[in-house]
Specification:
The complex is a heterodimer of chains A (172) and B (104). By secondary structure, chain A is of the alpha+beta class. Helix content of chain A is 32%, strand content 31%. Chain A has 7 helices and 7 strands. In chain A, strand 6 and strand 7 form a beta hairpin. The radius of gyration of chain A is 16 Å and the shape is globular. Chain A starts with a helix and ends in a 6-residue tail after the last helix. The model of chain A has no long low-confidence stretch (mean pLDDT 91). Chain B has 104 residues and is mainly alpha-helical. Chain B is 57% helix and 12% strand. In chain B, strand 1 and strand 2 form a beta hairpin. The mean pLDDT of chain B is 86. Classes of the chains: A alpha+beta (172), B mainly alpha (104).
Amino acid sequence: MTANDVASTTQVYRVYIKATPQAIWDAITKPEWTARYGYTGLVDYELRPGGAYKVYPTEPFKAASEAQGYPVPEVIIDGEVLEADPPRKLVTTFRMYLDPALAAEPYTRITHEIHEGADGVCALTLTHELEGSPTLANIVRGSLEPGGAGGGHAWVLSDLKSLLEIGKAFAE
Amino acid sequence: MDDDLVFKALADPTRRFLLDRLFERDGRTLTELETGLEMTRFGVMKHLKVLEEAGLITTCRSGREKLHFLNPVPIRLIHDRWISKYAERQISALVDLKRELENS
């Protein structure tokens, strides 16, 4: 594995949000917020190095999924908290369990960084290191969106911006 | 981020070409990006600066190299504001993702 391989499988997303670092931090780390935007999972972070990170489906998701004959697993995503420096930096490992191909891929790594700029606008940068996880890389890049499967990180961050700035996510 | 900067940055074929190259493979150096372009290194740097100011690329240092990454979020924001019809979509995104995976 060379530095070049790592760079070419890494995805970097940045969004500017008119909100405080703490509001952005809460929107990433608290389930009452994550249930309202993007894929609307319920996050559960133990915010210390070595702590657990899990994402659970909401009840409406479970019901809708079962009704369509595609039950979702109890835990959709898990990982480990590597670094938690509220409200600036959060590093976790990340693996998705929606199907066997995804569950078989190695843990990836996600870094959230929040930088406060001028005029109450913060830059939120999400870096996802995806070495060895091509299926997940496709999903988070938004490649499955034409099938209705959500637009990956860019879509999630756009929705997060809408929720924090307008007080409403797209679907609300 | 200013939408005008995004539209201006996208209104140039060289800059769109640079974004296409990063879409094919992300995290490239200036040296990699300038190959295939009949342009001076300085010219390519100027285009990359316009893209970075529009938020369409982000850069990070890796040792002595500066790596360039495609950031699709500004285009996404424009899409979501004017084009997208989210309301009925989003509620089922996770279910649809699961179905897409089962069928692929």
